């Protein structure tokens, strides 16, 4: 089972670095970054979190969400799963993640804009006990990756991959 991670207009280099590390650890395929390509060179603030992951990752950059949607239709055609708090969302704990999906995470402050959310095939959310508003985007990504990994039935080990 594979997935791509789509980071839509994220602001924090540290969040992107932490997500990149979790993306790779959970077997993610492409790491797709929407926004200013020049902003994310995986130096400085991200280097502490990535440990040269940028050399291992398959990175694709898009200037805007529409270009990503067009690319997905023409090259990947993966199901677009938005991770967002929304009245039409389904709980991530009950969701049967499909193979080859795009897990879309939005901006740390504003989330995924409504006009982009409606272009997604499904919206999933992480259930919370207390209403704190939202979780950190890097924490949310790791929780979603864990939920996705439950569908993987092989007994993968990390023993040979310690300290990449």
Summarize the structure.
The chain has 164 residues and is an alpha/beta fold. The chain has 5 helices and 7 strands. The protein has a 7-stranded parallel beta sheet.
- CATH superfamily membership: SPOUT methyltransferase, trefoil knot domain
What's the CATH architecture? 3-Layer(aba) Sandwich
Helix content: 25-40%
Structural class: alpha/beta
Residue share in β-strands = 15-25%
Q: How would you name the oligomeric state of the polypeptide chains in this document?
A: single chain
Instruction: Count up the helices.
Output: 5
Cα distance spanning the termini? 22 Å
CATH class designation: Alpha Beta
Layout of secondary structure:
Elements: E1 3-8, H1 13-25, E2 30-34, H2 47-50, E3 58-62, H3 65-76, E4 80-83, E5 90-91, E6 101-105, H4 114-117, E7 122-125, H5 137-149
Parallel strand pairs: 1-2, 1-6, 2-3, 4-6, 4-7, 5-7
Helix pairs in contact: 1-5
């Amino acid at each position: 089972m594979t997935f791509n991670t789509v980071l839509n207009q994220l602001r924090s280099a540290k969040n992107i670095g932490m997500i990149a590390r979790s993306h790779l650890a959970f077997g993610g395929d492409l790491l797709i970054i929407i926004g200013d390509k020049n902003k994310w060179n995986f130096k400085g603030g991200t280097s502490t979190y990535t440990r040269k992951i940028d050399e291992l990752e398959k990175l694709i950059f898009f200037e805007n969400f529409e270009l990503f949607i067009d690319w997905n239709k023409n090259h990947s055609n993966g199901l677009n799963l938005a991770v967002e708090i929304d009245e039409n969302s389904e709980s991530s704990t009950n969701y049967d993640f499909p193979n080859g999906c795009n897990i879309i995470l939005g901006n740390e402050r504003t989330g995924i804009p409504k006009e982009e959310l409606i272009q997604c095939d499904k919206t999933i959310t992480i259930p919370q006990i207390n209403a704190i508003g939202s979780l950190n985007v890097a924490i949310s990504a790791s929780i979603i990756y864990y939920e996705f990994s439950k569908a993987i039935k092989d007994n993968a080990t990390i023993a040979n991959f310690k300290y990449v």
